[in-house]
Request: fold
Amino acid sequence: MRAAPTILHLDMDAFYASVEQASKPSLRGKAVIVGGLGPRGVVATASYEARRFGVHSAMPMAQARRLCPNGAYLIPRFRLYQAVSEIVMGLLRELSPLVEPLSLDEAFVDLEAGGVAFDSAAARAAGERLRADILAATGLSGSVGLAGSKMLAKVASEEAKPAGLLLIEPGTERELLAPMSVRTLPGVGPVTGQHLRRAGITTVGELAEAGEDELVRMLGRSHGVGLHRMALGLDDRPVVAERDTKSVSVEDTFDVDLHDRVRIRYEVQRLADRCVGRLRDSGHSGRTIVLKVRRYDFSTLTRSETLRGPTDAVAVVREAAARLLESVDTTGGVRLLGVGVSGLADYTQEDLFAFALAAEGEGAGPDPAGLEPTGPDAAGPDPAGPDPVGLDPVRAGAEGAVERGPGAVPGAPAGAVGALGAAEADPSALPDGPAGTSGTRPSPDGGMGAAGADGDVEAGSDRPAAAAEVHAADGAPGSAGTPGAGEARGTVDSVGASGASGEPRAGGGVGAAERRWGAGSDVWHAVYGAGWVQGSGVGRVTVRFERPGSGPGRVRTFRVDDPELAPSDPLPLVGEGPAAAAG
DNA sequence: TCTGGGGTCCTTGGGCGT
DNA sequence: TCTGACGCCCAAGGACCC
Reply:
């Protein structure tokens, strides 16, 4: 807690929805809801127009549609949000080297460390200038909180929303906080809030009066002490510029619960592959493999296994996940599966083997393809007995390195083989369907980016009804399914036929007959220029031709195989960048 | 009328070595 | 040799955040 309000918290207003509105002029001033569009989707962000209908984050999408039937429902385009976020974070770093991003749209800044502000007046000026700079650079508004601690700065930005600035003068915080709901404090969610309410505590003032001992008794040591201090306005946490990643995970919720054990095993394998892809992209390996299973009744189980050393080998993670699955009862059905890796390191067990081998075997000749196992069982039968299913994690790790053989580079770190290599090296991979619409212009996106946009968009009441119907049918058994966010959809009995790979694939081009247009995604037409897909189905694609700087554009419909229509990258929200000419 | 995805942190309880 | 205390690691679950 410092004497001057020089900790700044920036929170962009309804970030995803605002980016979509800035990107698509026809949606400005309208209710925009961004989130998962499947039957089990939830709202990620709702524009302020949508919030007037009662729509809010984390609300089931079906409920949002009832409350706001004429809203524009969009799938998130994380790559675009990421790009905008980088611009904003860049502006923050101009203020101070101490910037702590909390998410794409939120960050703390230590103004004192940047030499920008040492008192209230300078802090306020810096905050106002920042808001103006963000508006100029992105066209978006953000809210700024300024205070002497992180907790209070965050409270302030929340109070300042939307598009405002609030500065909490040190010394006034207890008075300010006292009447606020306990839910205002970070760390008080629905459960703790209910707990406190039952004890007659609903405001921050009452929380402070309850005393530390009482809160520790109710909530446990760490939570109790922390909450009591926060209620008093005490918070010494520094702004931390860099945080190490602690775990990497992927999970999928299925439109329809899975019952078939074979199918469940297959999905776990796919998740393991994707997880390893992410792990390698981040330059990590990990020791603990975690399987997550959410059952039909929403109860969630986790099972984990810690290896003797860190790995980033597909085979090892697959096998561990498969073993863990064997200990889970899935009768009744499974709605979600997840695979994660924690206990991260920036080297692998296989690296150590390779290093040891290189150290002792100099002059023995290189392993040309990196195919030779480097582990203890490299020389044939293991005196301790066979290990056919990789029960020994470390040995399995060595085998994993072998499995990656075709892509392996002698002497290179294990991470040098990317997700693609892993996918290619996988002999048991089931066939995939069409790998998206990226044939002419591949834009590999492991997650919810362009591929994710392959879901539906229903942009306002003038959307093509036919398109919506067709997309709704995507969830039907045996359908072609949809990649990205919708990849778990429509895959009920169609193992391998979903075209749902989250991994980039080489040669992902598809024939014109299979060309599908990700609704909400950006396109370029040879005659009409930049636009975005408003809907598609029954052999047609509807495109609205507008760009961030234009007024609302016109809608035109084309055949899905129209040669003049091509996928495109998002246009910058402000100004005309190179992407504008990318058609 | 239902409840996403990707994380972090905390608590509890058991096993194990000292 | 047995037992309890202690610390550490691991596994599992839960709450919370955006």
In short: Residues 15, 44-45, 57-58, 102-106, 186-192, 223, 288, 290, 300-306 of chain A lie near DNA strand C (CB under 10 Å from a C1'). The longest strand of chain A covers residues 247-258.
